[in-house]
Amino acid sequence: MKRVLVTGGAGFIGSHLCEELLRRGNDVICLDNFFTGSKNSIRHLLSNNKFELVRHDVTKEYFIEVDEIYNLACPASPPHYQYNPIKTAKTSVLGIINMLGLAKRCKARILQASTSEIYGNPSSHPQKETYWGNVNPIGIRSCYDEGKRMAETLMFDYHRQNNVDIRVVRIFNTYGTRMDKNDGRVVSNFIVQALNNKDITIYGDGSQTRSFCYVSDLVEGLIRMMENKKEFLGPVNLGNPCETSILDFAKLIIKMTNSNSKIVFCPLPSDDPVQRKPDITLAGEKLDWKPNISLENGLLKTIEYFKELK
Q1: CA–CA gap between residue 143 and residue 16 (Å, rounded)
Q2: Which residue of 43, 104, 236, 298 pairs with 214 in a disulfide if CB–CB is 3.0 to 4.6 A?
Q3: Among this protein's residues, is 144 annotated catalytic?
Q4: Catalytic one among 70, 119, 144, 158?
Q5: Intra-chain end-to-end CA distance of the chain, in Å
């Protein structure tokens, strides 16, 4: 049994991670400022005496004794991270500095939840960990993209300079239950629009591609990375390599929800990536990990969840 801190633990991915860590017998401290996280996501965990909820912002120092730190704190959808871009950058940069300082003091292992957004609008496809990315440093997405890139830099500098035990994962599009219906990401947008028989809005012509990983597969990958042998620090891609166009994805959602929605096209936002697909060869070699839940099966669970919210 370990004592584990999860920042952003009341968020979509964080709540599933807290739940799984508890299931495996750990003591879990969930740290969240509830900007995008929700108490409803972890309400069912509050009665567990191994679970502790702390309202705190990672841009401020936090002191505790723990064995492991999962740093997931940061708004991840464009509407949320663009709402206050300076705060978003602070959350990534000051947040990881504070968590690395904590890891250094209590000799904890720390895992940084980085993102496929560090690859930007990639000129290499699929994206391998060796690809350095094609990122606009002054665009509307830069607060998130460059904040996460700087967080990776700090992780490896703290490791080299202070011997902090680190792990870095790059998370690709993830979906599942407990997504915020207003988070502005494609899965939640399309499902909510389809269930309400509203027009499904596609930005661009729909030819851009994404790959979608169900949240339980992602959580398994995070835990395997945290528990892997010391010599592999990452970064490592975690995502589902099954690629689909946004137009085909919209048609699938309409079919699975039996919706009367029509597809409408809107201008493509600035710096929106044209292709996004992970090369997960390294995750297979180092972690013996690959996603197991198909897109259709994952969407069935997610659609049922959103139906219950109506």
Answers
A1: 26
A2: 298
A3: yes
A4: 144
A5: 39
